[in-house]
Design a protein that fits this description.
alpha/beta, UDP-N-acetylmuramoyl-L-alanine:D-glutamate ligase, 5-stranded mixed sheet, 8 helices, 29% helix, globular
Length: 283
Amino acid sequence: MARIVVIGSAARDEVIHLTEPLRAGGHLNGVTANARLGGGGANTAVALAAAGHQVTLLAAIGHDAVGEALLAELAAAGVITTALVRLDQPTTRSYVLVDPLGERTVINIARCEEATPPQRLLDLSADVVYVRSRRLDLSGLLAVKSKHSLIIAHAPPSEPGSRPAHVVIASVSDLTAAECRSQSILGKTVSNGLARWTVLTAGEAGAHAYSADEALSVAARSVQPVDTTGAGDAFAAGLVHALVEHRPMAEALAIAARFGAEATLWPTSGLPRAAVQRLLQEI
């Protein structure tokens, strides 16, 4: 069991299942589903807690009924919530549109975020810090934390030095064409030279990892998606889990891809505990 701090959002996802493909300018029909726990930080934290780790989520939620509900759901999932801060803002909420092929479109309608960097990170014991946030003011805290903890961070942001991390993860859908062509340079630039690996996810095209002297690839598992929400967060959870077990990157990449594919088979934003535990038995 590793001590893991996850920096990211906790959100209420309000889901609409479209009965036809999403298209610009269209008049579409859909069916609402039950609202559920979401947010990139929460999705990853819940999966890692299900994998048996001691997971602390560092996030902000509002002093409202939605925030109270999310707090209870996170605690029930085994996530440590003592680093959550309550703000006089609406809790983060998103509309999630899921088309007939399972592809999701996320529309943020409220975002609860601290005005200043979360200095309490420095007081949290952590073997690993995973960052799923686009805040640009985390670099100083991460640089300090990187001296004692493994830092795994998602990009964007892609600004130079914005993510001093040992492993940088990015989705090709979030990057420019130039960044996709310069994978290891991207990681080195974003991490201010700290990154040992840059990991790129590419959906049906699989995932890739680049170091100074290696290039690794893993194929995507062929599945019929139910809901692709949170697949990237599940991928990250699988990667973090494998790396804290000191598995080589080739194995970690394959495990992460298994987690990501599994997430698309469930009508949830985060991987259910039963799915995580089955994956752990299989790997």
